[in-house]
Amino acid sequence: MEWVQNYYPFENIWLSAFVALLPILVFFVSLVVFKLKGHTAGFLTVLSAAIIAVAVYGMPIDMMAWSFVYGALYGFWPIAWIIIAAIFLYKLTVKSGYFDILRESIIAITPDQRLQVILIGFCFGAFLEGAIGFGGPVAITAALLVGLGLRPLYAAGLCMIANTAPVAFGAVGIPIIAMAGAVHVEALEISAMAGHMLPPLSLFIPFFLVFLMNGFKGVKETWPACFVAGGSFAIVQFITATQLGPELPDIASAVVSIACVAIFLRFWKPKNVFKFDEEVGGNTKLEVKKHSIKEIVLAWMPFVILIAVIIIWTQPWFKALFAAGGPLSALVLKFNFSDLANIIQTTPVVMENKAVKSVFEIPLINTVGTSILIVALITMVMLKVKVSTAVSTFGETLNEMKFAILTISLVVGFAYVSNYSGISATLALALAETGKAFAFFSPIVGWIGVFLTGSDTSSNLLFGSLQQLTARQLGIPEVLFLAANSVGGVVGKMISPQSIAIACAAVGLVGKESDLFKYTVKYSILFVIGIGIFTYLIAFHLTWIIPS
After folding, report:
1. Of 499, 497, 488, whose CA–CA distance to 525 is shortest?
2. Spatial distance between the Cα atoms of 390 and 385, rounded to a whole number of angstroms
């Protein structure tokens, strides 16, 4: 029996929207007021959405349940699988000892601590964001900045700000990949739009970091190096995001930026070498061991291989091998959720009557997570990591990620219940009533989502459909609002309770989270306002920026 979505459970659209908003409010209150763990907040949110979907929207219980199962499965594969494989690869490099060599090869490039912060906080942080994401870069780079001589709070704050530019493409592009799957838009289209919006921010961040450390004097003394770092990063970010997709922009941009800065500093030095004094950060001297070229090459090689493998995995000819009728199509498992095929979306939300997606696919090989696992296995051999160590490391990764995986599955399950019941459509129809003003608020929605969840991925899954449907209502290309959700989210990362807790734990400031929040919140608000204005201008005055 078919069930047709109803977007107006009450005659008044704003009353309907208020009820539709309740699950999100439950999530907000659970995290911010009651300070519940992510998976607990996720469970309560799913429960509230399920009750509203059935009791208010009239969704059959079995359809609601299968919608949640479909979303939860998608949360595990491919989303959680990418995270597991990426963190496993990172841990293997740590166990081998080569990660320390990689880190020290960056620190040894310059004695100027302003430029070291750019290299570690911005460039290396972006590299880690692209490889592992989900809090790892904040923890690692914040600890390294303390080692450079910064006070813990100062180090954590700079690290949080430096981590903004790469977040949209973090963890091998999973924020955009996850959104693309949820809203059924090609990941490359959203990636290309984000690639047009983020480069100005990427170029600005190195200058802003130096300004926070050493004021306009520092910017004046280091601007050539800041320009090389931010400019090279922005250019590669633009090229990879628009041409290859969301998997590589962070990793490739970071590697190129580090290389460009290293080469540039062989021919140019700042007029004064900056060291943090006692008032700013202390005199701790960071000892850096010297390593042979062979050791440095080996330390970087797993991530160079990762770039090559992901490029292969994203090529059309490779994807065609696993497409329907392709020679390896049997390696893509398909499960038909027949009950979901009877859920019908109607006008004016989707512009036509159609059934929601009901076939769940599990690509065993042609998914980014598997490509990362293959690189991890190559790394194990190349860096001579024992099989027993690798096995225990994989188990350690699963154990550390168990609650994160559960949280992601619950959040994605909630997203699908919202989408398939019509809850998201109701919110979109209400927001469309704000007219052109929503172009400004679009990135702010993503900013709020990352503040609530601590994850650009989770924010994109929570609000992706809302952004898509609102864009359709306003007659604006949907990729703009989809990308704006992710771009707005990147500057919400520096104030999310999850990220702040990770940063404070990494530098020994547990219990001082409110101090870090006070340091970053003013910059986060300024950034998201700027992105909102930029999005509005793109929507109505700079439409040529939107990829055709």
Report:
1. 488
2. 7
If one counts every other C-beta atom within 10 angstroms of the C-beta of residue 334, the result is: 11
137 preceded by a cis bond (ω within 30 of 0): no
Please name every residue paired with 332 in a beta bridge, in sequence order, or none if there are none: 363
SS3 at position 366: coil
In Å, the largest CA–CA distance within the chain is 75
Strands 343-345 and 354-355: antiparallel
pLDDT value at 59 more than 80: yes
| Dihedrals phi, psi of 34, to nearest 5 degrees | -90, -10
Lowest mean pLDDT among 62-66, 282-286, 456-460, 533-537: 282-286
Quote the CA–CA distance of 161 and 429 in Å, as a whole number.
34
Bond prior to 78 in cis (omega within 30° of 0): yes
177 pLDDT exceeds 60?
Answer: yes
**Does 278 have pLDDT greater than 50?**
no
How far is residue 98's CA from residue 109's CA, in Å, rounded to a whole number?
A: 17
Helix (H) or strand (E) run with residue 339 in it:
none
Contact present, 441 and 532 (Cβ < 8 Å): yes
- The answer to whether residues 276 and 149 touch, using CB atoms and an 8 Å cutoff, is yes
What secondary structure letter does DSSP report for 124? I
Residue 135: CA atoms inside 13 Å, Cβ hemisphere, count? 18
Average pLDDT over residues 89-98: 89
> Radius of gyration over alpha carbons of the chain, in Å?
23
- CA distance linking residue 424 with residue 429, whole number of Å: 9
CA gap 36, 28 in Å, rounded: 10
* 215 vs 458: which has the higher pLDDT: 215
Contacts of 14 (CB under 8 A, 6+ apart): 430, 433
Strand ranges (DSSP E) for 321-368? Answer: 332-336, 343-345, 354-355, 359-363
In this prediction, residue 331 carries a pLDDT of: 94
Alpha-carbon gap, residue 136 to 134, rounded angstroms? 6
143 pLDDT exceeds 80? no
How many angstroms separate the CA atoms of 144 and 103, rounded?
Answer: 9
Strand-pair category, 343-345 with 3-4: parallel
Cα torsion 118, 123, 125, 126: sign: positive
What is the Cα–Cα distance from 511 to 383, expressed in whole angstroms? 39
Binned at pLDDT 50, 70 and 90, residue 282 comes out as very low
Q: Give the pLDDT band of residue 406 (cuts 50, 70, 90).
A: confident
52 to 19, 20, 176, 414, 422: CA distances (angstroms) = 8, 8, 28, 12, 10
**Residue count (the chain):** 548
Q: Which of 521, 339, 400, 416 is nearest to 50 (CA)?
A: 416
Which residues are 362's β-sheet partners? 333
Dist CA 265 CA 259 (whole Å): 10
Question: 347: which residues sit within 8 A by CB, 6+ positions away?
Answer: 353
pLDDT at 533 over 60: yes
